[in-house]
Structure formats: structure tokens, C-alpha cells
Amino acid sequence: MAFDGIVISNLVKELNETIINGRISKIAQPENDALLLTIKGNHGQIRLLLSASASLPLIYLTKENKPSPLTAPNFCMLLRKHIANGKIIKIYQPHMERIINFEIEHLNELGDICHKVLIVEIMGKHSNIIFCNDHGMVIDSIKHISAQVSSVREVLPGRDYFIPETQGKSNPLSASRELFWEKAYGRPLPVQKAIYTAFTGISPVVASELCFRAGIDGDRPSESLLEEEKEHLFHHFTWLMDDIREGNFRPNLIKNGKEPIEFSAVGLTQYADYKALEYSSISEVLETFYADKDIFTRIRQKSADLRKVVNTVLERSRKKYDLQQKQLHDTKKRDKYKVYGELIHTYGYHLEENSKKLEALNYYTNEMVSIPLDPQLTPQENAQKYFDKYNKLKRTYEALTELTEETKEEILHLESISTSLDIAISEDDLTQIKEELVQFGYVKKKHTNKKTKIKSKPFHYLSSDGYHMYVGKNNFQNDELTFKFATGNDWWFHAKGMPGSHVVVKTNGDELPDRTFEEAGRLAAYYSNGRGTDKVEIDYLEKKHVKKPNGSKPGFVVYYTNYSLVASPDISEIQLVE
């Protein structure tokens, strides 16, 4: 997440286009470390969210309101006293830092014009919102930083405000060729790291992007670059700085399926394998990114307990299966004991008393065998001893064969549930998965009179040729799709030999184009355990040939004739129907 100086620069440009000369009509503090300013200007009423949260510092324009406490905190009351109805006359970013200064003009109690500066620092856990007078003295801040907390800078009323320069970084907008050469190539670091540690406001993502544009591996040591490579990288750096100076930004959001993975104010060509969405507003990018990210984070947190249950049972089942396989392997000698008993019956009549072994011809293999004997037993008793061993191992084999098959089915079932948790995108999806875990006794059912309404539905995609494709999110939906929704001539797809979703393509009685088969195969590959590989083998056949054995677990099917294709788990260009 690159909330860097370039994003800040884009924000400053946007704020200057929307709220400059606007008046602050409302000031609220919805969180201990966040402000919500309502500004009225030429573009109507706009809200500006400022957050100094250590975990999620933010600043963007929004249409959304947030509930505030009934009693306003002291910092909020102070701002209302000084700058309520104040006019924002200047918005700027100092030296590509992750800082935005708002210069505000207002009237004091005597009616005289005064100026104040509201400074928002977006610096991770050191983020803060600081209110200063026109001489740079701190009036107050949303977080008080004493000398005990920071040896670099105190942020307390009465102290002078300054930007701490602890990292020795340079302003990239004013970097000369000589300075870039010294900073990027003069230190024993990977070139990507050398760039983002040398220049203010450049994040690792942007440094990686610069290397990618220049066709250079960002992890290469800077001293290993050839002269032409160094020159080429510097040109890309210069072109990017020119774009920033001229305000040529490309606010964009990178998504992996529905999950947002990155955002930036410059084009990120290094994410060519993912879906890139461009916006006209960096505020919209930030609001969308963090809202969507919050959904996925919340889903992961809520799924953690279910995942723990599944992983615990899965680990136990795998250990049990390994033990059963070992025990099953030990029963392979059962037929040998049966043959020993038969040979003793056949040749034992001529044995001397107290013999310890019998040398005999195995008439099944035409080979001589040496059979150990108990000298204390008669030949008939030795034969019976081997028959008893055979029968015991035979019974063990029959019982273990059934138990091993049951354990294997349980492992496959749990792996399919684990895959369902990987692709869950809503709380309704998790509710349906939990219902399956309850049904099979992995999770205890909570007794309640309230009936949960399941709203989760399969993913719905549209092929390039206009055919509707559906993907089950979990085993219940897989069964529903395959055996209730699909008709006989619809096509059914599934990753071969691994847990994954059922994919159904509605044919409407048509013969499907090759491109639709290929896209459905990609969906089956993506929504399977093979999504992290380059290629996945996919089985596909008409739905009428897919059968569900009686008593089998949800999502389990059998089929005996099918076609196969190899698909890439890349669905970035397949249209998702919301």
C-alpha cells in the first residue's frame, strides 16, 4: 500500500482543485485520532477525512458522514474556536514529504484577520494532525508527543514545529543527475532499495515500478548495473518527476479478482497480470481501496476460527491416514502366511520332531522356500498358527481398507472446505461454510431460535461470447449448481484431482465456442487449489454424465467419461456479473 509522497502530491492537486477558498462549516472528531471537516465552496459541500491512526493513516475527500461523540473532544473544540467558518487559502506539500499543510484564514474575537496552519502528517505510526499559528508554534495536536516518547521531536503546545530530518533523504523533484548517480548507484544496496531510501516520498512500490519500466531487476546490486542501464533508469526517474511537477497523475487501483492489493497515483505496469482500474480522483481510489480492503481483512479475521478448526482436523486426519497406510502395508504379508500353512499341510508329514524350519517347494511360484517353525508345536499346530496369522491380517486389511477410504474422503472433504474459505468474500459465504462444518460435527451448533437467512450465491461470470458461467463458492453451492441448477446439456468443469469449485456453463442448447470452453477452464483453475500454479489440468463434460453417489459428502461427484484441457488460472479479463 503505497501512501507515499506521490499520492500526497496527487491529493494536494485534487484538494487545490476542489476545496481551495472553501469555508470550513463543520468540524467533527469521529475518532480519537481522526477529523472530519465539512467544507463549502464552489463545488458545493464536500467532506474531508483526516486520520492520524497509527495502523491506517488517511486523508481523502468523501461524501460519507461519520457519527461523532455527543461531547466533542478538546482538540475538536479548540479547532472550532479558532477556524470554524475559516477559509482555506493555501494547500501545499513541503518537499515531497508525506505531509499536507492547510493554511486557513479566519477572524479572531476582535474581528481581526488571522492565519493558522493545520498540518497533517501521514507517517505510519508517527502520523499526527498538528495545529500551528502563523509563526510555526504548535497550538495543539491530536496526539501529544513528549521527549519521553520521541527523542527526535516533541509535539506539544508551545513548541516550535519542524519536520524531523532523520533519514537524510533528498527531494526527488530537485535531484540532479549527479545526485541521482550518487544516491542510487553509490551505495552497496539493491538498486530498488537504494532509490526509495535515498529520495523523499518514493515508496518501495514506485521504486520497483521505475526498475520495471527500465527493464532492470530491482533486486540487483546497484554497482552491478551497466552504464546504459544506469542511464536508462535515470531517464525513467526524470520522466516520472516531470509528470509529478506537471500534475500528470494516473490514480489507479490494482485488484486480484475482487481483492484490492495495491494503489498508486502513477501507472503500475509491473502488475500486468492483475486487473488495473483507473479513476479520475485519488480520493475515490483511497476510499475504495480501504473500504474493500477492510471487507477482506474482516472476512479473513472472521474466517480465522473456522480455518483453525479445519486445519486442526485436517492435520489429525492426515496423520491418521498415514498410520492407516502403514498398517495396511503391513497386511501385505497375509498371503505369505496362508501359503506357509498350506505347504506345511502338504509337506509336513515327513518332518522330524522338534524341527525349526521346513524347506519346501512353493507350487504357486515353483521356488524353494524356508518356513520357520516352532519346535514346540506339531506340524498341524504350526500350520494352524500361520492360518490364524493370515485370518487376522485379512480381517485387519478389510477393516483398514474401509477405514482408509473413509479417512481419505474426510481429507478431501476438509481440503474442499479449506478451498471454500480461501475464496469466501462475504460473511454470508462464511455462514454457509460454517453450516457445513456444523452438519458434519466439526463445529458445535449454537442453539438459537433465530433462523439465519443465507444470502450467499455462486459467482456469476459472462464469457466473451455471451454465455453465462457460474462458480460454486462452497460444497453446498457446488451441489446446488450441478444437480439442481444445471440441465443435462450444460457443460461442467472441475480441476482434475484436486479440491475446487464446480463451474457450470449454461448452453441454452447451443454448441459452445472454443473460447468459452477456455474461459470456463480458467475459472475452474482459478477457483481450485491450483490457483498458485501456471497451469491446471481441467476435466470437463456435459452435466448429464456427472453423478453423485448415494450418501456422499457435499460437493463429491463421480464421472467416467470426460474431456481434458490445460488452463491458466488467470481470470482478469473475464467479466464478473455483479
Layout of helices and strands, plus pairs?
Elements: H1 5-18, E1 23-31, E2 34-41, E3 44-51, E4 58-62, H2 74-83, E5 87-92, E6 99-107, E7 113-121, E8 128-133, E9 138-141, H3 177-185, H4 191-198, H5 204-213, H6 227-246, E10 252-256, E11 259-264, E12 275-278, H7 282-330, H8 334-347, E13 357-362, E14 367-372, H9 379-423, H10 427-439, E15 459-462, E16 468-471, H11 475-485, E17 491-495, E18 503-505, H12 514-526, E19 536-542, E20 563-567, E21 575-576
Antiparallel strand pairs: 1-2, 2-3, 3-4, 5-6, 6-7, 7-8, 8-9, 10-11, 10-12, 13-14, 15-16, 15-21, 16-18, 17-18, 17-19, 19-20
Helix pairs in contact: 3-4, 4-5, 7-9, 7-10, 8-9
How does this model look, in words?
By secondary structure, the protein is an alpha+beta fold. It is 37% helix and 21% strand. A seven-stranded antiparallel sheet has the order 20-19-17-18-16-15-21. A hairpin with a 2-residue loop joins strand 10 and strand 11.
Q: Brief overview, please?
A:
By secondary structure, this protein is α+β, with helices and mostly antiparallel strands.
Keywords summarizing the entry:
578 residues; alpha+beta; seven-stranded antiparallel sheet; five-stranded antiparallel sheet; 12 helices; 37% helix
